[in-house]
C-alpha cells in the first residue's frame, strides 16, 4: 500500500532518486539528504502509514535490525534512533520513518531537550494500572 503523493513512497518506487543503503520486500533504508551528522540514515517500512500505529506489526520486524546494522557500519560509537509521530511531535514527512543519527560530538547529531516532570506516585500508580489493563 502506498500513497501517490507521499515523498517516501515516491522514493521507494524510484520516482525520486535516493542514496539507497538497503531494500527488502518490507523495508527501505537510505541516507538522509539533510543530515544532522555523517551517516544519518532513514529506515522506512514500504507499507504507507503516517504514524507507527498505522503500520501492521509484520511490516515492522526488520526496522530495528536494519537501524542497528546502519549504526554498526557507520562506525558511530554514540547514536540516536529516533521516530516521531505527528506534527507537534516533530514529524515532517507523513510516512513512518526511523532515523539513525550518529552523535560524533556535542555539536553534530541530534540535540535533545528532556523536560522531565516531577513524579506524583499516586497518579503514576493509577496510570500504571490503567495502561496495564489495556495491554
Automatic annotation (TrEMBL):
UniProt feature coiled coil, ranges: none
InterPro entries: HINT (IPR039384), Histidine_triad_CS (IPR019808), Histidine_triad_HIT (IPR001310), HIT-like (IPR011146), HIT-like_sf (IPR036265)
Gene Ontology MF, one: hydrolase activity
Catalytic activity as recorded in UniProt: adenosine 5'-phosphoramidate + H2O = NH4(+) + AMP
Secretion signal span: none
Domain HIT: 7-110
Cross-referenced SUPFAM superfamilies: HIT-like
Keyword Magnesium: yes
Cofactor: Mg(2+)
Cited PANTHER family: ADENOSINE 5'-MONOPHOSPHORAMIDASE HNT1, HIT FAMILY PROTEIN 1
Name listed for the protein in its UniProt record: Adenosine 5'-monophosphoramidase HNT1
Amino acid at each position: 500500500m502506498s500513497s501517490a503523493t507521499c515523498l517516501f513512497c515516491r522514493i521507494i518506487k524510484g520516482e525520486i532518486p535516493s542514496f539507497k543503503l538497503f531494500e527488502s520486500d518490507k523495508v527501505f533504508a537510505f541516507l538522509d539528504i539533510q543530515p544532522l551528522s555523517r551517516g544519518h540514515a532513514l529506515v522506512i517500512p514500504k507499507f504507507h502509514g503516517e504514524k507507527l500505529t498505522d503500520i501492521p506489526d509484520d511490516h515492522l520486524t526488520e526496522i530495528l535490525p536494519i537501524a542497528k546494522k546502519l549504526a554498526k557500519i557507520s562506525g558511530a560509537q554514540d547514536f540516536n534512533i529516533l521516530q516521531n509521530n505527528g506534527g507537534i511531535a516533530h514529524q515532517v514527512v507523513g510516512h513512518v520513518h526511523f532515523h539513525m543519527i550518529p552523535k560524533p560530538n556535542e555539536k553534530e547529531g541530534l540535540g535533545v531537550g528532556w523536560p522531565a516532570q516531577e513524579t506524583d506516585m499516586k497518579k503514576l500508580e493509577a496510570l500504571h494500572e490503567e495502561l496495564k489493563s489495556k495491554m
